[in-house]
Specification:
The chain is of the alpha+beta class. The protein has five helices and 14 strands. Strands 11-10-1-2-12-13 form a six-stranded antiparallel β-sheet. Strands 9-8-7-6-5-14 form a six-stranded mixed β-sheet, covered by helices on one side.
Length: about 220
Amino acid sequence: MTAILGYVSDVPKENKSMFLLSDDLVIWHYTNKPDEKQENYEKIFQFNNLLISFNGEVKLFEVFKKVVKSIPKNIDNISDFQNAVNKVFPCDYFRDRSVITSYSRYSNIIILDTQNRILAHHYAGNVWFPAKFYCPFHFEQLPNNLLYHFGSIVSMKNELSNTEDSFKKESNDYIKENIEEQLQISNMLFKETNDICSGIGKLYSFYLVDKNGEPILKQIDKI
């Protein structure tokens, strides 16, 4: 499981106007050796003005990042990005059950377009045998002014109720005016989620906009 929080407001200059935050924990699953934890995994990377993150299948995200490195470097919107990725993404790798190497379920790829102020996601499906993998990628824009929680408790609910929800809408009480408070309460939310369903790390990678409109980034790879 992983934990990602995403939010975009309709008011660009508010301190709380836009953010993407993640924890640091992933579980690598293997067919020939025990599962392996990694507690410093960067779940957000930057491609021009697009911040890309994920919930779920680590191998899927690793392959996705490799594909992004191969597409034209001047792409700066979600539509062109989607088209470029779909031209080269090796969908059959995840459809061929013989090469599946992990068992995470209900994966998402999440994009925050910081220039056009858009939060979008693609539900990649359950990429674990005998599930379906949904490709080509199609990024759905999410409405503003709502706090979205991807992964973690959503995955647990899906397992218990046999549903395929992509995200949970969190209470906007978790949105704070002050950046320090936003980071603090987000870390608290990750901890509370971990207490419920386990497998959630601490706040690690994040992007926020300060009161002057300047971005604050931590633990984010640039491609």
